[in-house]
Amino acid sequence: MGPRGLWGWKGLGCCLLGALLLSFSFSFSPGLRLLLLVEDAQGTWWNPTRHHEGTAAPALPGVDFGSLFSGSALEPHCESGQTLLILVASAPGNVGPRKVIRNTWAKRPLSPLHPWQAVFLVGQSLDEKAARQIQWEQQEFGDVLLGGYLDTYRNLTLKVLHGLKWAAEKCRPRFILKTDDDCFVNTNRLPAFLADHWHGGLLLYAGSVFPREKRRVIRHPVSKWYVSREDYPLEEYPPYASGIGYLLSLGAARRVLRVAEQVPPIPVEDAFVGILAQRAGLRPTTSTRFAKQNARWHLCNYRYLMVIHHLNASEQQSAAWSMREAQAACSGRPQVTGWKQRWFRSGVGQL
Ligand SMILES: *[C@@H]1O[C@H](CO)[C@@H](O)[C@H](O)[C@H]1NC(C)=O
Ligand SMILES: *[C@@H]1O[C@H](CO)[C@@H](O)[C@H](O)[C@H]1NC(C)=O
After folding, report:
1. Which of the listed residues 292, 311, 314 should we mutate to test ligand 2's pocket, taking the one with most ligand atoms within 8 A of CB?
2. Do residue 314 and residue 181 come from a single domain?
3. Judgement on whether residues 191 and 84 belong to the same structural domain of the protein
4. 248, containing H or E segment
5. Is the CB of 236 under 6 A from ligand 2?
6. Which of 194, 205, 151, 176 is nearest to 87 (CA)?
7. Nearest CA owner, ligand 2 atom 14
8. pLDDT tens across 203-230, in order?
9. Which one of 42, 193, 238, 330 is least enclosed by Cβ atoms within 10 Å?
């Protein structure tokens, strides 16, 4: 079964159409260079050489990975052969959300059938107290990947690219999930779900893919998603999965990272990953398993949902409780495979 079948069909039509309209088919290296040249000549892309002016070595125009690694900091220990590595973007000051996550969905069973791990992505803080706190957390829990970038919202793209690079080079899990520290991850279901469908060479990029009308580039300078025409001249982003949670298979992540060396970053992290994915020839697969917090969910929905967005501390606690309860209460029940609830009618997957 292809990966698309796993994630339901809602929005796939729009994705496929968008991907067909927008995707360029090319192979790596010479093809990519040619593509950049052609686009430059037509004036429809941005100038990839304007960064790194004045540096001695001829630098690539894209993400400067060397500067993202902090060098001296301790790194999380990473076991090999993992099914899933979860990268949680977190601001240095978000001590509370990290604590809640460690005590809820990131708490690992003693010997999981499909090994997984969660790592927090945190950057440099100018606040001394916050910086000391991060050091303490890393010593205490060993689950913080401290980057060399300054931790600001506009640097989120660098944070995620650093996390992906570290994951792909040091951990090599079968899948990487990027998420945020206000999200719940179904660690009871997701690793097994992915393991069931894994095969070497699988190129999966999946999440909640934005419809076309939500992919317009925001040009209002006060917006936190503002991107200038100089940084990205097109008016619309290619199809991309929301930053609340998206999955990349290792092969897909490697492709994205390779392209990232060629493309200047924009501050909208999830859109940037979409741009890279498109250039790497990957199409996002959309899924209703990635959703916003909804008080009306039934217990058995927790056998279906993989990432839930926008939970406060008490909602994290109750989601983790539901996840555990649902395992016993809902296995083999018709709604687990049937999904009659209206918000899941289109997302029937194999469970
Ligand atoms: C991160 O953000 C700050 C402030 O917005 C900026 O000065 C810095 O150059 C950015 N990049 C890195 C790698 O820290
Ligand atoms: C969390 O959200 C729930 C539901 O929206 C609300 O009732 C509760 O007061 C919130 N709790 C905290 C600690 O903010």
Report:
1. 314
2. no
3. yes
4. strand 241-249
5. no
6. 176
7. 312
8. 999 999 999 999 999 999 999 999 999 9
9. 42
